[in-house]
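Folding Task

Wanted — backbone structure
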Amino acid sequence: MSVSERIVRTTSHQLLPDMTCLEEWQFRMQATLNFDTRFNKDQVDQLAWDVTTHHFAGLIGVVMHLSPQRILRQAASLGQADMDYLMVDLVLAGEILSVTSLGEVTATAGDMLLLDLMQESVVSIERPTSIISWILPRASFLEEPAALHGQVLNHRQPAARLLGAHLRELIACSAELNANDVTFYGEESTQLLVRTLSMQLGHSAQQEQAHPLLGRLCLYIERHLQERTLSPLDLAQRFGLARASLYRLFEPMGGVASYIRKRRLIKARRYLLDPRYRHLRISQVADQCGLEASSFSRVFVQAFGLSPRQVRELSFSARVLPFEEDADIQKAHLDWFRQL
């Protein structure tokens, strides 16, 4: 992959044909990670962006200079079950206000905000702000990271300063890296991100004050997806929870049953794309993921827009999952998300 293919810049000063500034920005935000955006009248008049996306093997860094707006991850967006990523927003200048199930937090220059894209969130930008958004697969975390959603690594902590300096330098050196460097530093930076965030946030008092059970519940679900008995009732009994309490914990993720189904479908898609599982029949893939073979194709198409057989054929041709978007709009970096 050449530098021009690996580093892609878009700006409000160079719009696509027949699109207004607002239309193109909303289209781009929907097309990449299915974000909704909201503006008041003054914000529409002042709308501007400058976005440069850097691909580092299994890690993506997006440098964004943005005008005021709100960026939303809503319940309807969570139905996009393949958006199985975490976003770490390193604030360079300005500030962002985040509203999640944890409540409201503000991230200022040097802070890092962690957002789980399988959960709802609202990010408000009240003045021009610059951030680097780091996007990595949830699977990079050894423990289920759902409980980290909405937390902030404060810039006053040494870990935040050290990690932030590394990530800023990675972007600064990006254009000079060769193919081997990109792979090496992408993998090492992913591990540095994951281990630092897990250590600093995973055992913090803030998490204990929120929902300490959520991480354990999600980890249990991940380890038992193959079992047909896995259900809200089973979870409530095993963890000694009232069903109403269990539902409240998973409400930001669309409900516990919906969350289990999404995780099963994502696991099935990975099996279909992985050459190591090509010996399995499609009905066996469904069974391995705790899904009914009779309805597997229908629910898979609803989640991903392709049948299980079509996805398996893509794995044979070494193609990535297609995305519904115009060929003129940064196809290269949209494909990167599908390859994480």
About this structure: Residues 204-211, 318-334, 336-340 have pLDDT under 50 and may be disordered. The longest strand covers residues 85-93.
